[in-house]
Amino acid sequence: MGRQPCCDKLGVKKGPWTAEEDKKLINFILTNGQCCWRAVPKLAGLRRCGKSCRLRWTNYLRPDLKRGLLTEAEEQLVIDLHARLGNRWSKIAARLPGRTDNEIKNHWNTHIKKKLLKMGIDPVTHQPLTKQPSSSQETSSMPQSGNTHQLKETDADGLPNSSEENSSSSPADAENSSGDESLLLDTICSDDSLMNSLWLDQTPLVDALWDSAPKVENTSNDMAMLTSWEDNCAWFLDCQDFGIHDFGFSCFNDIESNALQTLGLEEKGH
DNA sequence: AACACGGGCAACCGCACGAAT
DNA sequence: CATTCGTGCGGTTGCCCGTGT
């Protein structure tokens, strides 16, 4: 059963988004909410694929996005989550409100991977790189095998069993139970409360994370979050001319609780 | 100053999955 | 139950920009 393309390729614009298109999209979403992405381009007056609109919104335009480089703490959390979840970027991103899977994925590929390699850690398996050239080749030349293996051995949703995880008794842990690995994790996870939250599958860990982050501009203040976003998207201020505050911008007023809710739902949903 | 190269990031592509019909 | 549709996800690509020669 052949799938139809998500949109007719004819007349669909591709490539970088213009400020004008951004404005149109955000104006539409704020007016109508997120529903039926396929219809969005038409209704919003965009010559874009619905998919493209969704991506643009989720990865770049969402008001609750935290722009800028990942903090040290965020990076460490990503490393640790990756050790548990593998390349399930959306799951990892769900643990870092304000960050997108794409952003994390890019950051992983461009920064963290190298960092780990420098530290002598295999970014795929999270095992210390072995000296034998053949085995290191093995590990790095089977991109997903390690991860898929890990995934199969974690929960269906890829998250650790709360009770078992604390005692590092998961198979994945057993797999990674070399001294070096625990040393790495110890180094990474020096914050006990943070790690407890993590393994207990509690979203507030991110708050702890942000609180512990040295240069966090938003101290769980949603307006601060908005402000930082506005700082990064000067044009967004223009959108106020469209009457954003009139049509439901309040939906972003309680970003943190929304994020927590969303995360809770997501975990149940997946 | 000009060119080549590499890194970083935004965006696209194709597949998978779940809901709806 | 089979099929269709919409969406989400992960991998990959391509462009832009900074740096080195």
Automatic annotation (TrEMBL):
The keyword Nucleus is assigned to this record: yes
Which species is listed as the source? Senna tora
Q: What Gene Ontology molecular-function terms does this entry list?
A: transcription cis-regulatory region binding
Q: Where does it localize? A: Nucleus
Q: Where is the composition biased (Low complexity)?
A: 132-145, 160-177
Q: What is this protein called?
A: Protein ODORANT1
PANTHER family attached here? F14D16.11-RELATED (PTHR47994)
Keyword Chloroplast recorded: no
